[in-house]
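thread from #wetlab-drylab

HS: before we spend reagent money on co-crystallization trials with adenosine-5'-triphosphate, can we at least see a predicted complex? here's what I'd submit
DV: go for it
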Amino acid sequence: MNISSKPPFFMETSNLSYRYSAKGPAVVDNLSLQVPEKSIYGFLGHNGAGKTTTIRLLLGLLNTVYPVKLFGQELKQNAQGILSRVGALIEHPSLYGNLTAAENMQVICRYRRLSFGGIPGILETVGLGKHANRKTKDFSTGMKQRLGLAIALLGDPELIILDEPTNGLDPQGILEMRELIKKLNQEKGKTIFLSSHLLAEVEKVCTHVGIIRQGRMLFQGSVTQLTELYKSSQVPVLIETDDNEGTRKLLEQHGFECRIEGLQLLTYLSSRSAIPALIDQIRNSGIGIYQIKAESKNLEELFFSLHNDPNSGT
Ligand SMILES: Nc1ncnc2c1ncn2[C@@H]1O[C@H](COP(=O)(O)OP(=O)(O)OP(=O)(O)O)[C@@H](O)[C@H]1O
């Protein structure tokens, strides 16, 4: 993967690696991230893949000898200046329940020596304008998360880093957070880096994506490129017939790999358009089909297909 400096990426790492202990495994392993300006970059991976650790490295919260660049500058050389242009929400926000939304923001403003002037506008942006004077102990999880984002927006950062921003939210809360992220990007020009373990979530919100497994990058590119790759990977198909064993033999004779799973047979096709021919083959051999169903590919299968694709990832 090439690290180009023209134009500089808003955030980039080159072969970033990290171990929590000298003899422990690499939790982040040769990770070269490239986050374009004005993108919404989804950092996708299962629980324990190394997302939060990477975010901590990007924010200078963990020490590393590897270069981490934000806005084209090395983080270590000007951490204070660079981080004043970054807003972050890692997991759930720490709020004082007995203080109102506005008062919670004032606490952070005092700490960061920012004026209180921007608070009403930011609360309006995140949809909490009407709740500015409510104590946060009465807030729903979604409202707390939006207030956490409001706090990250203090100081008008150009880059916003969000660790699993929809975690723990109900469907309505997820929808609102998703719309808010898009609004911040499209209307306020913010570059947003967010981590998630949900492929569907990333596809709906992000312009770019980096997929990691065990700290290693499997794929990095635009969501359009990911969709193309995803489409070209194999489709799992479940078949139930009156003779699953006979169907298995038949399909294997035609070069399909398959296995019996309970009352069904699982095989993989190159695309959904191959299903009619498959049905004809089974029916022509006198086997009765009870049902046939193309499964939607989940993250695990995408990981699997990426892992086996020599052209993808690292
Ligand atoms: N402070 C720590 N000390 C030792 N190991 C840690 C520490 N924090 C995380 N790990 C380990 O590092 C690996 C990556 O964890 P990390 O939290 O970065 O992953 P993640 O992708 O953010 O997962 P999740 O979505 O569950 O938060 C995991 O195996 C985890 O157990």
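DV: The longest helix spans residues 171-186.
HS: ok that's useful, forwarding to the group
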